[in-house]
Design a protein that fits this description.
Elements (H helix, E strand, L loop, with lengths): L2 H12 L5 H8 L3 H13 L19 E9 L4 H12 L4 E6 L6 E7 L2 H13 L4 E8 L19
Antiparallel strand pairs: 1-3, 1-4, 2-3
């Protein structure tokens, strides 16, 4: 990747609905070059997709929760089973297997506490391999972005 590719990635992370002409203007190139570069960035999976981000509160999911989970066992089949159950939960937006004292961290958005409690009953309380879970409810947002900056700052 060169500096133009990094500028294209940065511009599209800021606004994914740019036309090729708008993108070309934003990055200082031509529409045909941008079209070719974007196609290559998609082919190489640098650009993995194009989505619009929705406001959870405006969709009736104003409760944000970070859930830390500790499990009894760490076998691959139990991790896979747990991950499969998490993937079926629409309220869970992100889920990570982590190192350290915890085994998983989940980020979810809920319509109300009843929905949150029902998820806990399904995923954690009925699972004998879940030893403990702790939930933190977000009350303020200090930073929320999906943009990824290259490790070298884009100085290719």
């Amino acid at each position: 990747m060169d500096a133009l590719d990094f500028r294209i990635v940065a511009a599209l992370q800021e606004e994914g609905s740019l036309t090729k002409a708008e993108l070309a203007e934003a990055v200082g190139s031509t529409p045909s070059t941008c079209l070719r570069r974007v196609a290559e960035l998609r082919r190489s999976c640098v650009l993995a997709g194009c989505v619009f981000l929705a406001d959870p509160a405006k969709l009736g999911r104003g409760i944000r929760a970070i859930i830390a989970v500790t499990t009894r066992d760490h076998t691959k089949e139990l991790r896979t089973s747990f991950a499969n159950r998490i993937n079926e939960e629409p309220a869970i937006l992100q889920a990570y297997g982590v190192t350290g004292e915890l085994d998983a961290v989940l980020i979810g958005v809920f319509s109300d506490m009843e929905e949150y409690q029902a998820l806990c009953d399904r995923l954690f309380d009925s699972d004998p391999d879940v030893v403990r879970y702790t939930t933190l409810f977000a009350v303020e947002t200090y930073k929320e972005t999906t943009a990824i900056t290259p490790a070298d700052g884009g100085r290719a």
